[in-house]
Amino acid sequence: MNKSKLGLFLLAFLLMSLSSCKQQDSNSKILINEVLVNNTDNYLDEYGMHDGWIELVNRTYKSVNIAGYQLSKITAQGDTITYVFPKGDTRTMIQAKQHILIFADANPYHGALHASFSLDTIGSNRLILADAGGQLLDEVTLPSTLGENESYARISEKANNFEVRGKTRANQVTAGSINDLKDHNAKANNFKKNDKDGVGMAITAMSVVFTGLLLLYLIFRTIGNLSVKLSKRRALRSAGLIGHKKEEDLATIPGEVFAAIATALHEAQNDVHDIESTILTINKVKRSYSPWSSKIYGLRQTPNKKSNPYKK
Amino acid sequence: MGEFLSFIGNNLADFWSYTGFANATPGHVVMLLIGLVFIYLAVEKEFEPMLLIPIGFGILIGNIPFNMDAGLKVGIYEQGSVLNILYQGVTSGWYPPLIFLGIGAMTDFSALISNPKLMLIGAAAQFGIFGAYMIALALGFEPSQAGAIGIIGGADGPTAIFLSSKLAPNLMGAIAVSAYSYMALVPVIQPPIMRLLTNSKERVIRMKPPRAVSHTEKVIFPIIGLLLTCFLVPSGLPLLGMLFFGNLLKESGVTRRLAETARGPLIDVITILLGVTVGASTQASEFLTWDSVLIFGLGAFSFVIATTSGVIFVKIFNIFLKKENKINPLIGNAGVSAVPDSARISQVVGLEYDPTNYLLMHAMGPNVSGVIGSAVAAGILLGFLM
Asked: Which residues in B lie closer than 8 A to residue A194 (C-beta atoms)?
């Protein structure tokens, strides 16, 4: 019966766990973050060339090596060109929350971050990113209306929506950096601006500290009361006093009294400490010395108290 | 022959330029003296010797003058040096949680579980942190720096190091040394405040003896403590998680070996590494600044506020308590989480006024709740300011 109850409980727990799990999002790790097709005055590659580029972002909190990953371009005619990132090149490692740029110059001999295709400045481009096993990670179709030095970028690294960038100064292309450029010390600056004397922080933080410890107090007061009641009840039950008319009175007697009575009864019943033997024999114990059994290697030195610093 | 002598002379001059004597500055001498004072206080006065010996000697190690341009890779701030590698535990913040693991494995929360209202005293004493935070802001420190300085008032060395490594790494040496110095000076700072704020009647209040706490309660405490505090302040997870984990190892009764390792060899090793590297991080060029002087002043101030708020809170709390449940305000100072020193102060001061009134077991309640409170406060500061 107990086993079947346990089995049902485990099954219910498993079902709850499964229902609470979100479906694994295949686009959650490495994404295409920003693409610039027609580069005439933007980021230069290491050869000093203005090439179109594709920015990838690692959204995780750990480094990811994209060696073996596949970046494909599908032209308006339906032709697919795939570039596979080479293995054994350290530049394919994207650090946590960081970006890399892949230059679309159709010249992979220029390095691991140079794709084997270029982007079409006329017509649309469709880009597909897949992992080393061919599983789709991200797919972006670029609008054909992108102008010179304009990029198609996610609104932020967390967003799924894209926007055209580079048309205004306020909405610039962000090659190799975060799309949503914001104040990274916003919280501290917010406190600096709105809580100059720190009173707000003190009130908020102390409220949280008190709330936490107050909740802990309430929970353990309840648990303590329950525990005391249970232990008294157990003691009464073991003494066969449940239902006794003096049960209530007995329940108020502290545990120490029961302990003292029990000890006295035990000593009386077992004739403990009646007449002790007056003969004490001490046998000398001889042990052959060995460093393995030596206590001096296993024991700490006895603390040597010198003086009490707290004594006036 | 003359050429050879000139060669020898040049070599000796070269050697001289590498020695500490040639590179010493007055700053080095000052820091070496501070290190020696720490060692003296530890050996002669027995003030927190477990901390002051490693830190004091670390100050000596960190302030041996040498030629910084020689690329010898000996300084703590030189990437790849042995000291620098050991210092990573401080800068990356993984020594403090391991210390908390050990603290959890050696702390008995029974006093707190048997009388849970003592938890609130631990919360009240955290006013020291935010009092120092406000003063630091007034003195012109940035909010993140003020938060790191304020945590000195939590009287918890590992927490202070953990928070300052995240919020103000450049002030960490001064903050750590200040926190440990004042923890060692708790016997000097707290008693006058306790006497000043209490009257003769309050000092002899006898508290009800704590009840026996069951094994089940002891096992439940770290689990509920973790879930509750970390759901409230997830940023405190590294410290609180390890503290309660260590305590569960101790109280579960089935992981004795693990608990003994955590509270014995592990915490000893980490204390040695933490103490020496924090001490060594106080290189004169980094440490002897006006900011350090201010931090020391603020540290003292935060301990005073924390002690005051703990004692006053008990006095206010007593107004609402029945006569038989009154709390002796002399345990209010123990909310400052310098475990177990501030609890010992309650005992010593209490015995001065009533030689048969033992307050130690009662004071341990607010003392350990102060540890939880300061870790929660650190989590809040981290969440707000980072």
From this structure: none
